[in-house]
């Protein structure tokens, strides 16, 4: 049976919420985040995107690109509440919902509660309900698998929808640049381009042996998506794979004691979540970003779970000390625990703030 899958993606979600709630911001380039020197753009309105302003961009760079940019402090409690409204709307149509973030989700509507005959009609009805309930617009991609549905949701943004049918799927993928493919990031896209792989057609022309030689364990995924194949089901309950916290320092740090203190604060944040969720992992990772934005990680896996704050402190300190003394200023550190044992609330659906 051909599945009917919809990928719903809110349009510039955080920024659109701010423009909805403050009419003076409408039509203006808006960035949600902090305008401080160490600030980062969390989200950008479509007016701001025309200047090249996008999420994760340093605020100073964003202001350089768009001097008229208006910064608004994020209101995550508001975004979470609206996200709950949106997910309640999804539940009016199907029980098979896989959230990816606060503002996007996969829906399997093969059997939908409204008995609508097509996924196209279902997506249109969902988008209308979201607009009616929240005053916000959403875009939707409709297809027979998750990979194509996610690609399609970008095709008519904002406030549109696009369908990829089984008859057109493989041929459509061949026309697209590989940089648009979900699961192929900027670094991998550049590597593919250096190997002469610019489009889906170029990727499809490569043998599985060629892809394994150059991309290792990811070869199978690339081989499949070049043929518009994706057998992953929409999973309504996903196990959370990790818990992490990171911070950007006000000034680049070089002193070992200050850097270690920052790592311990992040470890405390992570442990608070682990203890509350009763989810404990065996792998600890420390992330470091230097003043020149070079980024490194150090990880260690243990035979048993890290089951105390003291053990997490010890693991985190051991990892950060492997890169100390710092050769150059450090602007960011982070701590992540992963490789969870299934217990307690670790099987809760994860709704990360940034998708």
Automatic annotation (TrEMBL):
Key words of the record: Cytoplasm, DNA damage, DNA repair, DNA replication, DNA-binding, DNA-directed DNA polymerase, Magnesium, Metal-binding, Mutator protein, Nucleotidyltransferase, Transferase
Location (main, coarse): cytoplasm
Gene this chain is encoded by: dinB
GO cellular component terms, A-Z: cytosol
Pfam family, one: IMS_C
Protein name: DNA polymerase IV
Localization per Swiss-Prot or TrEMBL: Cytoplasm
Known role: Poorly processive, error-prone DNA polymerase involved in untargeted mutagenesis. Copies undamaged DNA at stalled replication forks, which arise in vivo from mismatched or misaligned primer ends. These misaligned primers can be extended by PolIV. Exhibits no 3'-5' exonuclease (proofreading) activity. May be involved in translesional synthesis, in conjunction with the beta clamp from PolIII.
């Amino acid at each position: 049976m051909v599945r009917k899958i919809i990928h719903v993606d809110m349009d510039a979600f955080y920024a659109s919420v701010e423009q909805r709630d403050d009419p003076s911001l409408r039509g203006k380039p808006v960035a949600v985040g902090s305008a401080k020197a160490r600030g980062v753009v969390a989200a950008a309105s479509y007016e701001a995107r025309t200047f090249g302003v996008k999420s994760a961009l340093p605020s100073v760079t964003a202001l350089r690109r768009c001097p008229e940019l208006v910064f608004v402090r994020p209101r995550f409690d508001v975004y979470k509440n609206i996200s709950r409204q949106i997910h309640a709307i999804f539940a009016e149509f199907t029980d098979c919902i896989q959230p990816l973030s606060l503002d996007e989700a996969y829906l399997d509507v093969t059997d939908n509660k409204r008995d609508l005959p097509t996924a196209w009609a279902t997506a249109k009805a969902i988008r209308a309900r979201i607009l009616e309930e929240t005053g916000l617009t959403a875009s939707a991609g409709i297809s027979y698998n998750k990979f194509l549905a996610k690609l399609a949701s970008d095709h008519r943004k904002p406030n549109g929808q696009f369908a990829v049918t089984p008859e057109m799927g493989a041929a459509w993928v061949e026309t697209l640049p590989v940089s648009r493919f979900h699961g192929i990031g900027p670094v991998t896209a550049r590597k593919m381009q250096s190997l002469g792989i610019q489009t889906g057609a170029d990727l499809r022309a490569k043998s599985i042996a060629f892809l394994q030689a150059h991309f290792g364990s990811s070869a199978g995924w690339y081989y499949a998506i070049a043929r518009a194949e994706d057998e992953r089901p929409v999973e309504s309950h996903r196990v959370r794979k990790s818990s992490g916290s990171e911070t950007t320092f006000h000034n680049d740090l070089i002193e070992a004691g200050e850097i270690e203190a920052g790592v311990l604060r992040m470890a405390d944040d992570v442990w608070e979540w682990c203890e509350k969720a009763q989810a404990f992992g065996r792998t600890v990772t420390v992330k470091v970003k230097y003043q020149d934005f070079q980024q490194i990680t150090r990880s260690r896996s243990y035979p048993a779970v890290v089951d105390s704050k003291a053990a997490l402190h010890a693991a985190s300190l051991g990892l950060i000390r492997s890169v100390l003394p710092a050769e150059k200023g450090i602007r960011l550190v982070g701590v992540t625990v992963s490789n969870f044992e299934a217990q307690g609330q670790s099987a809760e659906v994860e709704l990360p703030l940034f998708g």
